[in-house]
Design brief:
By secondary structure, this protein is of the alpha+beta class. The protein has a single domain, classed as 2-Layer Sandwich (Alpha-Beta Plaits), CATH 3.30.70.20. It contains four helices and four strands. The longest helix is centred in the middle third of the chain and has 11 residues.
Length: about 110
Amino acid sequence: MTYIVTDNCIMCKYTDCVEVCPVDCFYEGENTLVIHPDECIDCGVCEPECPADAIRPDTEPDMEPWVELNRKYAEQWPVITQKKEPMAGHEEMDGVTGKLEKYFSANPGEGD
């Protein structure tokens, strides 16, 4: 099992999760985070830290596309280990559906 970031992170990008990760497996995109599924040690400490409930175990139904998206962008984006402010407008975007299709950016973030 591994944990992965799903679409509720898009346009919110809370980073509470990155500070508790013992193996620094979070990577930062322009408007979301991802977890490298091959680096995650399945400790689960990040899941309850996410205010947007965007971190899920890969054992939930229909998570394979999210595992692959997390893997793909974790290999392209810079690592992030320090908490930053969430994106402007994150309150309004929390819980919006269809964010992957409407808002996802493949551009990298700044990282640490």
